[in-house]
Amino acid sequence: MALRDALDPDRSIWHFIAVHLRRYREANGLSGQALGDLLDCDRSTVSRYESGLLKIPRKHAKIVDRVWQTEGMFTALIRFAEQAADGDWLIGLAEYEKRATRIRLWEALLIPGLLQTEDYARAAILRGVAEDPEETLRVRMQRRADVFDKDKPPRFTAFLNWTVLAQPVGPPEVMRKQIAHLIEMSDLPHVSLRVVERTAGAHPGLDGSFKIVTVDDRELAYVEAATRGRFLMDPYDLQEVAVRYDLISDIAAPVGPSRTLLEQALESYT
């Protein structure tokens, strides 16, 4: 399924913009290349606008508003979407993960959701503020299954801060099963788990958790926040996150020693 087929204009303002950009283009009899010429960009950029992988900037919205005589509709929609602080992009996270060919992430505080066992996830969710913990748990487990249970799962690399192993979430039995699950996952040929040890000291990863998702040969970053996460698709923002990832890679323990650290953490909960 194409990315644009996963857009949900009823739940996301940005998705609404992407869907209607395509509809207006087709209604006006323009190809993707023709619209690119009008906006002074290439056809692939137009495709990214219409698939939701890239937000159409205001300068381009003003052009289509003027040419298509929409009375400023696209410009106004972008203003409303920006005021929403990107919260509705969370709706698309599971879809992008499902279609990813590569996922790279850094987790500073908890075991990443895609690597959580059901018991660990439940313990973490119940300590949070979810309005419907069981539904939140169901969605999280489905996200995990959609990524790892498909015929061709993505290449998955995770850097874990030492604190995620030391911080108990639930009783010791829950932590034992969780860390045993990490060890089991690390045996998979498409999964790489590495630990940043306490001795690493201050480093760029302390600024917060994030993931870089590769979809259809394009990259987007998702950064965590206290109340909601947000996607970064601007090339400069993506480069900044990628540099942080590389810097963390420089200090993370190699795969072999990281497995030893996981095994030691498992023994600490016996």
UniProtKB/TrEMBL annotation:
Pfam families: DUF5753 (PF19054), HTH_31 (PF13560)
InterPro entries per the UniProt record, alphabetical: Cro/C1-type_HTH (IPR001387), DUF5753 (IPR043917), Lambda_DNA-bd_dom_sf (IPR010982)
SMART domains xrefs: HTH_XRE
Domain spans labelled HTH cro/C1-type: 21-52
Cross-referenced SUPFAM superfamilies: lambda repressor-like DNA-binding domains (SSF47413)
Highest rank taxon of the organism: Bacteria
Protein name in the entry: Helix-turn-helix transcriptional regulator
Provenance organism: Actinomadura meridiana
